[in-house]
Automatic annotation (TrEMBL):
Superkingdom of origin: Bacteria
EC number of this enzyme: 2.5.1.3
Cofactor: Mg(2+)
A GO MF label: thiamine-phosphate diphosphorylase activity
The organism of origin for this protein: Planococcus notacanthi
Reactions accelerated catalytically: 2-[(2R,5Z)-2-carboxy-4-methylthiazol-5(2H)-ylidene]ethyl phosphate + 4-amino-2-methyl-5-(diphosphooxymethyl)pyrimidine + 2 H(+) = thiamine phosphate + CO2 + diphosphate; 2-(2-carboxy-4-methylthiazol-5-yl)ethyl phosphate + 4-amino-2-methyl-5-(diphosphooxymethyl)pyrimidine + 2 H(+) = thiamine phosphate + CO2 + diphosphate; 4-methyl-5-(2-phosphooxyethyl)-thiazole + 4-amino-2-methyl-5-(diphosphooxymethyl)pyrimidine + H(+) = thiamine phosphate + diphosphate
Function: Condenses 4-methyl-5-(beta-hydroxyethyl)thiazole monophosphate (THZ-P) and 2-methyl-4-amino-5-hydroxymethyl pyrimidine pyrophosphate (HMP-PP) to form thiamine monophosphate (TMP).
Domain Thiamine phosphate synthase/TenI: 9-194
Pathway it works in: Cofactor biosynthesis; thiamine diphosphate biosynthesis; thiamine phosphate from 4-amino-2-methyl-5-diphosphomethylpyrimidine and 4-methyl-5-(2-phosphoethyl)-thiazole: step 1/1
Amino-acid positions noted as binding 2-[(2R,5Z)-2-carboxy-4-methylthiazol-5(2H)-ylidene]ethyl phosphate in the UniProt annotation, renumbered to this chain: 139-141, 171, 191-192
Record-listed Mg(2+) binding positions: 75, 94
Family: Belongs to the thiamine-phosphate synthase family.
Protein name: Thiamine-phosphate synthase
Keyword annotations from UniProtKB, A to Z: Magnesium, Metal-binding, Thiamine biosynthesis, Transferase
Amino acid sequence: MKFSDKPSIYFIMGSRNSGDRNPFEVLKAALEGGITHFQLREKGEGALSGTELLAFALRCQLLCNHYKVPFIINDSVELACQIGADGVHIGQEDLSASQARKLIGKEKILGVSVHSSEEARKAVKDGADYVGMGPVFGTTSKADAKKPAGVEGILTVKKEFPELPVVGIGGITPGNASLVWAAGVSGIAVISAITESKDIAGQVAALQASSKEGIRK
Ligand code: 3NM
């Protein structure tokens, strides 16, 4: 269930990301298309909370379980533990990765967003299974996103930690993903490339195909 040698297509979505479409239909189409990981990231205006978020998360989890795709929760270790999610993803502003690892146990997936080698070093020490690095390109999906960083940071982290799975994020599409794969990532994480696509399964296939254009290490 953790990161493997297979290129990972890591889909991220919350209830506010699917526009006019039913989020469960979008998630189902993405799962059908072959995403390898799903992260529930509930943010923004009108974000669900409490029992509504719990119900939403449980439906997403059921779908992911059906397709045997790891179900990862952004930020809330509490929610992840409550429903037995497969993992959590945390940022630098959340609780520390070592605290998160203690709370979720050894078997669950722990992902940490990092922006430098120093943060990556700490994430590794704290027990992260993978790190997310971004935004690689410009993104409109994250209100407080930093400036696009390109792939330099990814190259630096991969040099120091060749075995550490790195997932690139931010503005990634089938058209530019090969640049990210070429930097040595294990996976690419996307929101809008999938949520805004008319042909979701085709888009997931195109993201997968892009990994063959890049030179994966
Ligand atoms: N985190 P899209 S960028 C959730 O830089 C998220 O850490 C980022 O959405 C980071 O694929 C981002 O639509 C948004 O650009 C990714």
